[in-house]
Amino acid sequence: MPQNLLDLTAHGLATEIEVGRVSAREAAEVANVRVEEVDGEVNAFLTTTPELALERAGRVDEKNGEGRFWEGVPLVVKDVLSTRGVRTTCGSKILEDFEPLYNASALENFGEDLVMVGKSNMDEFAMGSSTENSAYGPTRNPWDLGRVPGGSSGGSAAAVAAGEGWWALGTDTGGSVRQPAALCGIVGLKPTYGRVSRYGLISFGSSLDVVGPMTRDVRDAALLLQAIAGHDRRDSTSANVETPDYLAELDGGVEGLRVGVVSELMDERIDAGVREVVGTVAEGLEGAGADVGEVSLPHAYYALEAYYIIAPAEVSSNLARFDGVRYGLRVPADGVHEMYRETRERGFGAEAKRRIMLGTYALSSGYYDAYYAQAQKVRTRIIEDFRAAFSRYDVLISPTSPSVAFELGAKTDDPLAMYLQDICAVPASLAGVPAISVPGGLSEGLPVGVQLMGDHFTEPMLLRAARAAEQVAGFGFTLKP
Amino acid sequence: MISEEQVRHVANLARLGLTDDEIQEMGTQLDAILDSIEKIRELDLSDVPPTANPLNLSNVLRPDEPRPELSQEEALTQAPERVDDLFAVPRID
């Protein structure tokens, strides 16, 4: 082997495999050993699949470089993505023994010989910002094992930060890719809504959910998006829009690019240390030739409220499928309604119950117009705000999260404090626009994420801007713990 | 203020079993959450159309062509309980 494989990015490793200096099997072995070494502390995985990884890596090697460029690079898959024959729990007791009958389309697109390290830990049904809502215990942040990795894709973020696999898939409904990426010092990309098929992604908020890459650098994010993107006839909400080459203009720089700093997301709700890092990166982009100014998204102040009506409303509907009939847990009872109630009482954790209740309430007779319909109208206003902003700027910039990683247990008793973690992330979710978190520097010795947002389907430009931001930040990936 | 009766009503709509303690706690927490989202009601949005999907897709159709999908046998493999070729459920009350 040419060097320590754990020092390579995913595209670096893919190149080594392509030219034959490293075998996919060797890479899979390195990932498996790393999981053995550190996952006792990190708890990034709900299920590990070392034999499957070796078997598929062997098949990649048999192709002698004729397969897809990325195929041999071991990948971590969030446990909300269906994997045929491999347990998929969504971090919930209600799916403890569930084995899907088909693969998520994003995984099928990646390739049939996807070298999967395992299924990563998450907040139950992707509801949470710390991975503490997992029914199987929290994941720990590799930067500081006493702190949370963020969530809900905290297992995926921690696995990448700890080198338990070179890259990961997460899902983002209201920040669940971007916020844990920020807290673990890696890159997290939420593509445009509909850019990646949701087929086989176990639904949380169907009008918000997106599958996204979580990687060591921006180039890896572009490569992983290339691997999973595309229209899918099995998902009627997937976008029938051509998939461009996401790597083509990556190194084009930001000369003349118009970058707007979102003023509503730089106020006192954001920790000063976080604002400072974002400001420094914005100045760096200006130094690199971008035209940097200030921009307003006036309805961003209402985004969190609208999100915490729309997302629970959608989840209350989506989680109705867990009824003990076709799959998952069943608690036996005499009548069918009692069976539903007891199954769902035993199977769901506190946050899932809270959101089901909130969503059912917001949709119930007499409250629908006041809450759900009003939130949908706020959503229209937020989309209009973005449209106005994008008439003046190509890319918007803000913090990803209002703080760095917090201590385990710090917010578990206060749902509202936990929801505030999402204030910077939810505007892009409601508008369906692509957004990426890039490590911008440190505050209190912990990583800070800088969020860049672009208009629908402008990922090539967004990735180019993110690549430039990554370069001016000069935040090199370092393996933890 | 959301009443205990309302909490029980909503839990019933959601077919969610909750203990008496959970009913109490849920009422308190829902109150706090609803208070915090109350401010969206201050906006006058009577003329604004609602957004259900950020790409504004509607009525996405595809040709109605039969294709092989899951077999009945496969579809039943994850069932908590089956009788012959069917999902089994308790008495419908």
Overview of this structure, please?
The complex is a heterodimer of chains A (481) and B (93). With 481 residues, chain A is of the alpha/beta class. In chain A, 65% of the residues are buried. Chain A is globular, with a radius of gyration of 21 Å. Chain A is built from 15 helices and eleven strands. Chain A has a domain at 5-250: Amidase signature (AS) domain (Amidase signature (AS) enzymes). A two-stranded antiparallel ribbon of chain B has the order 1-2. Chains A and B meet through helix 9, helix 10, helix 11, helix 12 and helix 13 of A and helix 1 and helix 2 of B.
Shape of chain A: globular
Which CATH first-tier class of the domain at 4-42 in chain B would you pick? Mainly Alpha
Taking the sheet with the most strands of chain B, its summary is: 2 strands, antiparallel
Low-confidence stretches of chain B: none
Q: Helix count of chain B?
A: 3
Note the run of SSEs of chain B as H and E: HHHEE
Query: How many β-strands of chain A, per DSSP?
Result: 11
Q: Which chain pair shows the most residues in contact?
A: A-B, 69 and 51 residues
Can you tell me the CATH architecture of the domain at 4-42 in chain B? Orthogonal Bundle
> Any idea of the CATH topology of the domain at 5-250 in chain A?
Amidase signature (AS) enzymes
Shape call of chain B: flat
CATH class of the domain at 5-250 in chain A: Alpha Beta
Measured by DSSP, the beta-strand proportion of chain A falls in 5-15%
Radius of gyration of chain B from CA coordinates: 22 Å
Overall pLDDT confidence of chain A: 97
